[in-house]
């Protein structure tokens, strides 16, 4: 981030017509945006949302309440404007791009072999990296992929250890949850040799849309575009970067705490306090998209308010 | 609320292209909006924000970090578009109206006599009632009034009993906080005879902008316009209605939990779970205005999404 812009934005914040600190966390958010955008008056009126969709071999293990063909059906729904994320993108003035990643060719079942080859994971990382519009004011990476809460749980377990990372996802019953936990355990056992290498973890246990999200978060960093992280799956993708390079997510804020059981635990590992906590568990970037409104509000206040001097208002004492 | 619209909206919610419940609290919010607006597809794109400003005799007790003339200066700032609420109104497409209520004639110091006469309190209640645009999709009542966290604390103490309702407001030190607590105690002692009558409590311990907010919340109820409650002061105004008539706030949602110490306690009394918790303590309706974005997102999803049948997506099982 740009230290000069942070200093200028901090000074500006102190002069705005409000009691010091009265906008709470909104003030820090605006200054953080200023640092990444390199200006004392950041903007948030042109956000970009990118959804990556992928299919997963591990669905053969009965880990989802929905059939795998829903991934491609939902991609069609995105194209026709019928999904939740379409409505949220419109509500907050965001550009929405959708990348379907080889949906007819699911990744390999990670309980049996690596989910992706090295060439495959590099290709989707690059696809994600290049999906970021460097002129966007804010970036949200969303996902669609039946079975991907199991994949995200495997990544979290591999990166941070421990058990209990699997959750209800789109709504599995107790037996489904047990199958998810078994698949995660089997995946970790199968790929035990690579668990200390975050990029190998991503290749062996991840998925195309998750690797693409990681690439996009990295691409946003290079372009100095602030990122709003979505739920459990987006945070698992982000965690690969953070474990590989601590500080890699300094340009990211947590959009929300989702209802997926282990998301709070993952946010704690990432050191991120969520902006919203409304029990969403949809994916598609929906929780992060809803949080665009919070950042738009924060930036609107910071960049648009009058100073005490401009308004002729007496400062407190 | 309209039971037919609620039933229709609930049925619609169950058919939208998402796993059941995946939009969390957003689903209940959209259905609640449907009930008050009397349609299965509610809207939130035309919100109204009204700010009421008043001055308070109790400022003579040294209860604020800011001089009383800041009230009128901030009203000028609202008129010129320089305040936080102007930026938030613009960001969320809200109409903003400002009513300055006899600023050159503060209410009486409630530690010595009733803050308002019966005629005065009726006049400002009516002013608030009539300030609501019945065609608005959502309503936010905000306030500006140096000294009014002390007034709100006195109302809360009178309505609910107990001590510790006074807080830091715009930023008083320990001595200022002690003066606020003393003023509240003196006010309650002075008006002990009327504490069981919420409207007399409003007259004796309230203020013009607070009574106007109460009138506006009532006006919105009559017009079936859903309301987003702001912070401690707005909730104290709302509490007068709730204590007078339990259920009077069924058309209201709590926009946020503010940093003012006793706001959480007041929300618990009102049985309201806040949508946001970002440490705001500015007033002006700012926290509620920020929450407009959440309701716009909820309503956009509910009213704009495709159903499973429309989109040709397989439902879960």
TrEMBL record, chains A, B:
EC numbers, comma separated: 2.4.2.21
Superkingdom assignment: Bacteria
Pfam families reported for this sequence: DBI_PRT
GO molecular function, a single term: nicotinate-nucleotide-dimethylbenzimidazole phosphoribosyltransferase activity
Active site: 284
Catalysed transformations (reactions): 5,6-dimethylbenzimidazole + nicotinate beta-D-ribonucleotide = alpha-ribazole 5'-phosphate + nicotinate + H(+)
SUPFAM superfamilies reported in the protein's UniProt record: Nicotinate mononucleotide:5,6-dimethylbenzimidazole phosphoribosyltransferase (CobT)
Listed CDD domains: DMB-PRT_CobT
Keywords per UniProt: Cobalamin biosynthesis, Glycosyltransferase, Transferase
InterPro entries referenced in this protein's UniProt entry, alphabetically: Nict_dMeBzImd_PRibTrfase (IPR003200), Nict_dMeBzImd_PRibTrfase_bact (IPR017846), Nict_dMeBzImd_PRibTrfase_N (IPR023195), Nict_dMeBzImd_PRibTrfase_sf (IPR036087)
BP GO annotations: cobalamin biosynthetic process
UniProt pathway annotation: Nucleoside biosynthesis; alpha-ribazole biosynthesis; alpha-ribazole from 5,6-dimethylbenzimidazole: step 1/2
Family: Belongs to the CobT family.
Function of the protein: Catalyzes the synthesis of alpha-ribazole-5'-phosphate from nicotinate mononucleotide (NAMN) and 5,6-dimethylbenzimidazole (DMB).
Protein name listed in UniProt: Nicotinate-nucleotide--dimethylbenzimidazole phosphoribosyltransferase
Organism: Tabrizicola piscis
Organism ancestry: Bacteria, Pseudomonadati, Pseudomonadota, Alphaproteobacteria, Rhodobacterales
């Amino acid at each position: 981030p740009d230290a000069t812009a942070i200093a200028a934005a901090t000074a500006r914040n102190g002069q705005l017509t409000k009691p010091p600190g009265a906008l709470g966390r909104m003030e820090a958010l605006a200054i953080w945006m200023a640092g990444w955008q390199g200006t004392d008056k950041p903007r948030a009126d042109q956000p970009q949302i990118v959804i990556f969709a992928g299919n997963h071999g591990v669905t053969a293990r009965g880990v989802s309440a929905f059939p795998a063909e829903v991934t491609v059906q939902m991609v069609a729904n995105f194209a026709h404007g019928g999904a939740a994320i379409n409505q949220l993108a419109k509500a907050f003035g965001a550009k929405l791009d959708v990348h379907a990643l080889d949906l007819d060719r699911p990744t390999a079942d990670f309980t049996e072999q690596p989910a992706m080859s090295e060439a495959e994971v590099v290709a989707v990382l690059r696809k994600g990296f290049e999906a970021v519009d460097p002129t966007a004011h804010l970036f949200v990476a969303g996902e669609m992929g039946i079975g991907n809460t199991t994949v995200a749980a495997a990544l979290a377990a591999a990166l941070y250890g421990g058990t209990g990372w699997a959750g209800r996802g789109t709504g599995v019953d107790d037996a489904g949850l047990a199958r998810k936990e078994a698949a995660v355990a089997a995946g970790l056992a199968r790929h035990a040799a690579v668990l200390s290498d975050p990029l190998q973890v991503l290749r062996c246990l991840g998925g195309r849309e998750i690797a693409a999200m990681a690439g996009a978060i990295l691409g946003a960093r290079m372009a100095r575009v602030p990122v709003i992280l979505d739920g459990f799956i987006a945070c698992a993708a982000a965690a690969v970067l953070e474990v590989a390079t601590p500080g890699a997510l300094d340009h990211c804020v947590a959009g929300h705490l989702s209802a997926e059981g282990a998301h709070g635990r993952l946010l704690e590992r990432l050191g991120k306090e969520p902006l919203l906590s409304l029990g969403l568990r949809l994916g598609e970037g929906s929780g992060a998209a809803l949080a665009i409104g919070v950042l738009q509000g924060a930036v609107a206040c910071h960049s648009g308010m009058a100073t005490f001097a401009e308004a002729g208002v007496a400062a407190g004492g």
